[in-house]
Write a structure and sequence with these properties.
With about 375 residues, the chain is an alpha+beta fold. It folds into two domains: about 5-45 and about 150-230 and about 340-385, FAD/NAD(P)-binding domain, CATH 3.50.50; about 90-140 and about 230-325, 2-Layer Sandwich (D-Amino Acid Oxidase, Chain A, domain 2). The chain has helices spanning about 15-25, 60-80, 100-110, 120-125, 145-160, 215-220, 295-305, 365-385; strands spanning about 5-10, 30, 50, 85, 90-95, 115-120, 135-140, 145, 165, 170-175, 180-185, 200-210, 230-240, 250, 265-270, 275, 280, 315-325, 345-350, 355-360. Strands 5, 6, 7, 13, 14, 15, 16, 17 and 18 form a nine-stranded mixed beta sheet that branches. Strands 1, 2, 9, 10, 11, 12, 19 and 20 form an eight-stranded mixed beta sheet that branches. Strands 3-8-4 form a three-stranded antiparallel beta sheet. The chain is globular. The structure holds flavin-adenine dinucleotide.
Length: about 375
């Protein structure tokens, strides 16, 4: 490995979807991930929801790639036997105030969603007999997917098309050259004894930074220090098997008023279990999944308005994930409460090193948007390689 057309840094869902898209068209594609397996970070620590595109600002990259990604994800899953289900979802309000639901529906329609409908309490009960709600927005195009299987399937197709996939391969330095970027890679078990690891380099005509939580650090290797990623932890609980009858599908509250998350929701998984979460909290460290976890009682407190029958004895703590946010934590001295804290995806050729394509702040709905982001990146690669 001394020359490559394209090196993709990061083998999460986005890097794997990009590897699949670009290996349809170019040879000598390399996908590198520092972990022992692909998709071990954010791409397997999420809700596994195929989002519809309801929430995002019309015209934003999130809106565009979520809507297209929704269709492309269903098509890909069907063609490659990835477990998934088009469940639809309910966004429920527990107060008499329906204006928020109407506003969400209008935004969804502006984004091109079809089949949105506001339904009453009786319709909620017919679908979810244990959910308490005054009204709800029905969103038919939402679904669920086995996210780890999705990552593996994108990577499998990329490999079949000739992409070279390396795990235990950590990019440690990037050096722009006249017509390429030299990529320095630590291979082998970097976490183990140093004797297990070695450093080698490859000259790439194009580099794609799909490093998720660490994309700001990879961008900085090229001298681009404009970005900073703040990890926002989302924690989950699982409902005990005996109480999994409490939820039939996907039930969401109205989204977090500041846009930090879509709110603590209920997900019946493909395996019949029920997840409650995720929460949203800034943490200091990009690897801090477990320190100071919220107790189950806190999940009960937040879940009860929608699911009054839930008790602490029905819940056990489950996994957590970290969202790569571009928006810093609120500063009480400067930021007014309630101000939206949403940033769009950044997908761009680097202004100073145009052979590098930067993907920064790919938080939710990145799992859904991945195949559409991959098409976008493929166009940027074409501009780069000519
Ligand atoms: C709690 C939570 C819930 C979510 N729910 C949903 C949902 O229901 N639906 C949805 O659409 N989206 C959801 N998301 C968002 C979605 O999971 C992410 O947008 C998506 O997984 C991002 O994928 P990625 O490939 O960009 O990042 P990652 O999965 O983080 O992959 C990046 C990869 O880069 C590798 N890497 C980093 N630095 C280096 C380096 N120097 N060298 C080599 N490799 C490196 C890492 O090991 C990692 O594997 C959720 C996210 C969270 C946290």
């Amino acid at each position: 490995m001394d020359r490559a057309n394209i090196v993709i840094i990061g083998g999460g869902v986005v890097g794997c979807a990009i590897a699949r898209a670009v290996s349809q068209r170019w040879d000598d594609v390399f996908l590198l991930d520092q972990m022992p397996k692909l998709g071990m970070v954010t791409s397997s620590r999420n809700s596994g929801v195929i989002h519809s595109g309801l929430y995002y600002t019309p015209g934003s990259l999130k809106a565009r790639h979520c809507l297209a990604g929704n269709r492309l994800t269903y098509e890909f899953c069907a063609a490659h036997n990835v477990p998934h289900r088009r469940t639809g979802k309910l966004v429920v309000t527990t107060t008499p105030e329906e204006a928020e639901l109407t506003h969400l529906a209008e935004r969804g329609r502006a984004n091109g969603l079809e089949g949105l409908r506001i339904v009453d309490r009786a319709a909620i009960r017919a679908r979810e007999p244990h959910i308490e709600g005054r009204a709800a927005l029905e969103v038919p195009s939402t679904g669920i997917v086995a996210s780890e299987e999705l990552v593996k399937a994108y990577a499998r197709v990329a490999a079949e098309q000739g992409a070279n996939i390396l795990t235990h391969a950590r990019v440690v330095r990037l050096e722009p050259q006249k017509d390429s970027i030299q990529v320095w890679i630590r291979t082998g078990n970097a976490a183990g004894p140093t004797s297990d690891a070695s450093v080698e380099s490859v000259d790439a005509r194009c580099v794609v930074n799909a490093a998720g939580l660490f994309a700001d650090e990879v961008a900085a290797m090229l001298g681009n220090t404009n970005y900073r990623i703040y990890p926002v932890r989302g924690e989950y609980c699982e409902v005990t098997r005996a109480k999994s009858y409490l939820i039939n599908g996907l039930v969401y509250p109205l989204p977090h008023p500041e846009g930090l998350s879509l709110g603590l929701h209920f997900t019946k998984t493909l395996w019949g279990t029920v997840l409650v979460g995720p929460t949203a909290r800034y943490v200091a460290d990009k690897t801090d999944y477990e320190r100071d976890r919220l107790p189950v009682e806190e999940f009960v407190r937040r879940a009860k308005p929608m699911l009054p029958e839930i008790e602490a004895s029905d819940l056990t703590l489950a996994y957590s994930g970290l969202r790569p946010k571009l928006v810093p934590p609120p500063d009480p001295a400067r930021d007014k409460p309630g101000v939206k804290r949403i940033a769009d995806f950044v997908i761009t050729r680097d202004p100073s090193v145009p052979r590098a394509i930067q993907l920064i702040g790919i938080d939710s709905p990145g799992l859904t948007a991945a195949p559409s982001i991959a098409q976008h990146v493929s166009q940027l690669v074409a501009q780069t390689l000519g």
